[in-house]
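Worked example 2:
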Amino acid sequence: MATHFSSEALKFLRGLKRNNDRAWFDARKKIYETELKAPMLAIIAEVNDAMVEFAPENVRPPQKAMMRIYRDVRFSSDKSPYKTQVAAWWAREGLEKTSGGGYYFHVSASEVTVAAGVYMPEREQLLAIRRYLVEHHAELRELLAGKKLKAKLSEFDGRRLTRPPKGFAGEEAAMDLLLCRQWGVAATLPVEVATQATLVKEIVERFRLAAPVVKLLNTPLLGKRKQSMF
């Protein structure tokens, strides 16, 4: 039987969005554990099995790939204790404690999101990717323009700068890419997809298409990591 979420799981997420407090959550923690956490761990395991073929370096133990539902509110004006989605992040081996290229999936009360790429690179990673794209922008453009990929995923907006980043000439052929602060692709699917037997297939199909993009973006980060070891 294919792994997916239940209608009860979506009901829980809708309730959590309206009642984001510890008393409400604690009274329904068993529902969270059985209808959301357990299925998510099973989904991650199934996705891992498929990723061995096209992204083995991103395969992660389910407990490590699944993101905590508890929010870090220390530096936030929003003190809501819980995230309103269940999510997973498949980091690249060797870049687990940084923000390298990886694969992401979440289910909220209103949508399913599947994404891949570099989302919040650290300053040194941002610089390394930009320097790499000066010489390899054509390769990334070709990957992002692929018909199969574009049929299933859309390019990040990139959180673009309004002027060239420091150290890069404005006439660079790669400038539109260098202005970005993140690179990758994503798809937003109807929330009903979360309850269908094809859920894992939908995730894996998009991860597979995005794999060459993730590998290209990780190339300068892995090179920098190896150099720093000596």
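The CA atoms of residues 160 and 180 lie 4 Å apart. The longest helix spans residues 199-227.
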